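#struct-help
A.M.: can someone run this one for me? Single chain, 273 residues.
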Amino acid sequence: MAHVVSFRKEEPSGPLLREVSGPVLRLTLNNPPANTLSIALMEALLAALDAAAASKEIKVVVIAAAGKLFSAGHDLKEMTQHRADADRGRAFFERTIRLAAEIMLKIGKLPQAVIAEIDGLATAAGCQLVASCDLAICTDTSTFCTPGVNIGLFCSTPMVALTRAAHRKQAMEMLLTGETIDAGTAKDFGLVNRIVPQQYLRQVVDKYASVIASKSPQALKIGKEAFYRQADMPVAEAYDYAVGVMVENMLASDAEEGIGAFLGKRMPEWNEE
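D.P.: on it. Structure tokens below:
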């Protein structure tokens, strides 16, 4: 069944912009000048992800950013202001960092695919956000880094996502040196999927989103959950788990419809429930 494409833009201002185009939700970080992950922005992003998870209409989520930077990570000015608190900022630091971790976990558990669209610098928790998304597409001028070590703060929470997206030794190189890598190096490291010229970024991301949105919602939900669960299992355990998932998927209505459509040489009509 073809999706009816509609377009709706919501919230013209605020730290997070929302656009809905057919089955695709676009969330744009809008916290100038550096799109730092302030409490306000992270709360808005988490709420938007929660709403997407509950939606039957949204099939793909894109996380983009306004301005020249994707995200400079946590708002260090906001955090530093709380060093004057009675606990020297401990409670606020924990709230900030745990909220970011909750967002990263939410992205992985979301039934929809999540695509990061990067144009500019993604650093520290901004790089963590890129690494946490299912796919990442960037411009050829985008750059990435985990520079905490340069200011006496090892990027321990960005490390969790980074070591699960990039190759281990390359992730450690980024974490130990704090140096900025270019788009080509980020692709070599495994941090991004594609590099495109800036003028084609939105077009390429929209194409990926459209292709993914055309697939079975049941299969995408089952497959995404299984992908992340098996990734941390020993290989024999992963196969045992995947066999069970595959059998249950075969029994699902979309698999029955999809296989029947393939054998009958017709387009499938997915169950939207």
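A.M.: thanks! The radius of gyration is 20 Å.
D.P.: also worth noting: Residues 1-7 have pLDDT under 50 and may be disordered.
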